[in-house]
Amino acid sequence: MNTVNTRQCRKIIPFAGILLSALCLLLFLLWSGSEPRYQGQALSYWLAALDNPSTATNVQTITALKSMGAKAAVRLVPMLEASDSPFKLRVVELARKQALIQVHFTPASVKQQRAERAFECMGEQASAAAPGLASLLIRRGSEPPQYLGDPASRAANALGCLGYRAIPYLRPALRSEHARVRYSGVSVLALCSLDTAPETMTELLKLLDDADPKVRTAGAYALGKVHRHSGLVIPRLARMLADVNPSARKQAALAIGHFGSQASNALATLRQMCSDVAPEVRSAAAAALTEVGGAPGREEASVPGLRGDP
User: Fold this and answer.
1) Among 59-63, 116-120, 158-162, 292-296, which is the least confidently predicted range?
2) Which of the two ends of the chain, N or C, has the fewest CB atoms closer than 10 A to its terminal CB?
3) Does the residue 264 lie in any domain?
């Protein structure tokens, strides 16, 4: 009886492999048929070209990816969290045992790497992916980080490639209840603030008026990191020293300090903040006074300086 069953299984397995191969081919055709194209080649072709270290090839590939723009960008987001289940790997293994149809299989790790490289190549041309990337960061950021990277980290890195265009979509991450998501959001915000486009400062200043103090604090942190356009930024930060939230006041003081002597007009306000009810604000104000060049009084000098992220 066992021998009969074994023979039947041997007959069924090749047939099952053929069916699975046909299914894989159908899915591939459906995928490739809807892919954006450049010069007759589908997105998957240009993503595979990123594996080639040749400079000439990459220049052409970068041009192709940027030309496909939004249509390509939105398809890259799910690739950042691609995964291969044991069942999927088993199906591919069975399909490859038959010779009727050639099975092309791209491991999840390769898809992830290609998507990351594509975002780096596309820069702000991939801005259409910003909502999806922010959602991915928030959704997967609550999970424990993995040693070799995870979808949330990859989403954060991709957002950082978008420049100022990513800033409006970071607000939910900055408000998150999960510390890791907030930290990732602040890190991306600081990176995006280095974008020299005029719109960057506009987007950062908008954060200072947000209803959530976490977002206001993050905005002050980013402005302190970039410390550009002092004439525009310092008055806004000085007004923020009257914020109802002590963390926001503290970060505003630290951000002003990063401008150094350019913030000399804020010395009087900083001295007043050295008498703030919150000790962390007093510490930040004293530290900022030292950086700006104002000589702190005896009371302010005795307060330890404060550094750190919001």
Assistant:
1) 292-296
2) N
3) yes
- 273: in domain: yes
Of 91, 99, 103, 85, nearest to 16 by C-alpha is 91
When pLDDT is averaged across residues 68-88 and rounded to a whole number, the result is: 91
* CATH code, 222: 1.25.10.10
Number of domains in the chain: 1
In a domain, 225, yes or no: yes
Backbone torsions φ then ψ of 105, nearest 5 degrees = -130, 125
Q: What is the pLDDT of residues 89-123, one digit of tens each?
A: 676 566 666 666 665 778 889 999 999 999 999 99
Start-to-end CA span in the chain (Å):
71
Where would I find the H helices in 176-275? 179-192, 198-207, 213-226, 230-240, 246-258, 267-273
Q: For helices 179-192 and 130-140, give the axis angle rounded to 10 degrees.
A: 150
Residue 296 is part of which domain span?
193-310
Closest listed residue to residue 115, CA positions, set 170, 85, 87, 73: 73
Q: Tell me, yes or no, whether 198 lies in a domain.
A: yes
Chain-centroid distance of CA 39 in Å reads: 30
Average pLDDT over the chain reads 84
- The H-or-E segment that residue 146 falls in is none
Cα separation, 103 vs 148, in Å, equals 28
Q: Are 240 and 273 in contact (CB under 8 A)?
A: no
* Alpha-carbon gap, residue 279 to 293, rounded angstroms: 21
The two tokens of residue 233 are: 């930024």
Question: Which has the minimum average pLDDT: 57-61, 203-207, 272-276?
Answer: 57-61
List all residues 6 or more positions away from 75 whose beta carbon is below 8 Å from its beta carbon.
35, 36, 43
Q: Is the pLDDT of residue 16 over 70?
A: no
What mean pLDDT is predicted for residues 56-65?
Answer: 90
